[in-house]
Design goal:
The chain is α/β, with parallel strands linked by helices. It has helices at about 5-10, 10-35, 40-50, 60-65, 80-85, 105-115, 125-135; strands spanning about 40, 55-60, 75, 95-100, 120-125.
Length: about 140
Amino acid sequence: MERLPEFIANHLFLFSLLVALLMLLAWNLFGDSMSGVKTMSPAEVTRLINHDNALVVDIRPADEFKDGHIINAMNLPVADLESRRKELDKYKDKPVVLYCQGGAESGRVIRGFKHEGFGNLYVLKGGMQAWKSAGLPLTRD
């Protein structure tokens, strides 16, 4: 243990790389909770839809939405988000679940909604890919 400072001094690049990797790992594990974004598994989203009548918002482009989406989901593509955001104002007190293809984009989008007074916001962890992997039903228009 007494030689640790000497090791760090001799291998500064490797030690810096270790610290950076540990920080990235911590961000990956705890980033969602630190940013205030609540993620839910497909099973949890199903429960929220069935018991709390949650609104499900698909933020993928319209052509991907038509290929298959969660039953009763509203399509609100990211490109149209600013012009159509008022459509969601009546759901501010209701649970709202956002999802995209993989889950990353919906996490970014949801932060904007939090600043507008939405209280019960959730992200489908893994997005549509996780929903399909769980074998849950889809519908097509």
